[in-house]
Structure formats: C-alpha cells, structure tokens
Amino acid sequence: MWLTTAVLPESELRTLDLPVDERFDAWTEWMGRTHAPMQLASERSADYHGHQRLIGLGDVTVWPATFDPLVFRRTPKLVRQSDPEVYHLSLLLEGEGAASWGREQAAYRINDFHTNCSSRSWEIFTGSDPVTIVGLEVPRALVALPAHRADRVIGSRLSGREGVGALLAQFLVQLVSDTRPYQPLDAPRLGTVATDLVTAAFAHALDADRHLPPETRARTLTLRIKTFIGRHLGDPDLTPARVAAAHHISRSYLYRLFQDEGVTVASYIRDRRLANARRDLADPALRTTPIHAVAARWGFPRAPEFTRAFRGAYGIPPSEVRAQVSRGGEAAHGQHRGLSAK
To answer: What pTM was estimated for this model as a whole?
Structure first.
C-alpha cells in the first residue's frame, strides 16, 4: 500500500515501531510483498531490526533498506505458487552477502550488484553484521533483451564501481538519498531510466568476460560458514570439527579459510557469542533475565567460564554491564519523578 506524498509514491516499514514479538513476522511478510514470497531465517528473529522504504516508479520499484543478518530462500514450490516475473538487483552498500542457485554461487563486495529473478529458486545469505542495500525490481518484460539472454546474467555479480554498473549505482543512490526534487509524474519517467540502465548493464555483462575469480568460491563458502555459526551460537557443542563436518570440508581447510580472515574459527565463535551476550546484558528490556541465562543462551553453559571470557574480552565482568543498565534506569526514573514533582 502506497503512502501518497507530494513527491514520489513511497511507503515504509521500520520494525522498531512494532512490538518485539511481531517484528520478524512483519518483516517476512513485507519482504514477500516487496519482491516475491520467500522463506526468511535469522539468528536475531527474536528482536529483529529492519528498515525499508519502498519507492514507486511506475512499474518499477526501488527500495533502500538496512536490516539485521538474514537468510532468504525462494524455493521451487514458492516459485510455482507465485511468480510476479521480475528481475531483482541489490546494490550492496554496507556489509557482505552471497548467493547460491543450483550448483552456482557468488559472493558480493561493497558496491556490487546481486542479481536474481522471481522465476528461479535461490538462496541468499548475509554476513554477521547488518547490511545496507538499494534494491531494484524491474518487470522482466520491460528489459529490452531476449529473455534467454537476459536470464544468463541472473546470479552473476555486476560491478557498481565502473562502466554502466556505476551509472546505475549512482542513479539509484542519488534517487533514494533525496526524493524531494521529484513530482509524482516523474515516477514512470524515472522507472524508464532505471529499466534502460538495467538493460545496458545486462548487455554489458553478456559481452564481457564473466569468468569469476578463483577466490569467489572460498569467499562464498566462508560467508556461508559464518551464517551457519551465527544460527548455532546457542549450541555449546558448536566446535570447529562440527562446523567443518556440516560443510563437508576438512578442519584444515576450514582453518585456512579463517586464517585469510585474520582470526581462528574458535575465536570467531567465542567473539560472536560474547558480542551477543553483551548486547543482551545491555538491553534494558532484558534486565530481569539472570546473567547465567543470558550466558547459556549464547553457548556458555558454565557461568565461571563465561565471566572469565567476558572479562578478558571487555575488561569488566558481565555484572558491571548489567549494573550500568540498572543505574541508567534509576537515573531516568529519578528524572521522571523530578519532572513530575514540578
């Protein structure tokens, strides 16, 4: 549903405006309407943070968004149930992402475009940090290339740093940064510009060497492993051996992948667990949850071990983080009482 404005048609979803227990379901439903029905999963589904604007350009839509780590899946069954027949492009501005479709896969860097199509099944997964993208939905029928040729681009990584891809990226970034200069009648004209640039970018990709660099598979696999770790942090038996087995690789190869990242597998798991635990301890909404329960939730079943690791990472015990939250709450309560007494 569009919110009619004095400029371009636009609607918005900010999950922080919703009750905590409704946020992830609302985001899932919204994303299904934005592109096509899909399955979503996230390690942060209990309190999901996402913000998206949906800008209408006639038959084309553009949607800048920032959201927590997420796995998107569009299955063959969902394709059969509903197919709006659109091409999708995501310009990655912050974070990292990768995708797989069949036996093919690709990893994406900042200022890369990820491409997919609602008529195909695929899986997309982001890294351990929130991502910021600008999404673009274009009806397949509007792309002025034979469908069998345009479809060959789907799944590939298009650069937004040079050539036609840079023109498309600059157009999208400038558009979403400030829509005030435009009038409603500009919407379909801007949609035509976007479609022409997508057509040109696809044509350029078909003419260029599409051979992916050798490190692409390793980068994609590393991101998939990080996603797996993020979804199993609460399991105290999550070990490098289990991670390697789940991805059908040797432990030595797993160690080499993370060596390229500058960390060990074990330290990555520990640091992610501690960061999530610290976030929960600093959350005023969770201040009544016992510290040992927070620790257990993130894979530390033994409280002394958690306290030692936490102090080693942050220089203070977990109880001090919880105390800071309590003191902040008391100060806010005291301010409220003072204002009420005036």
So the answer is: 0.67
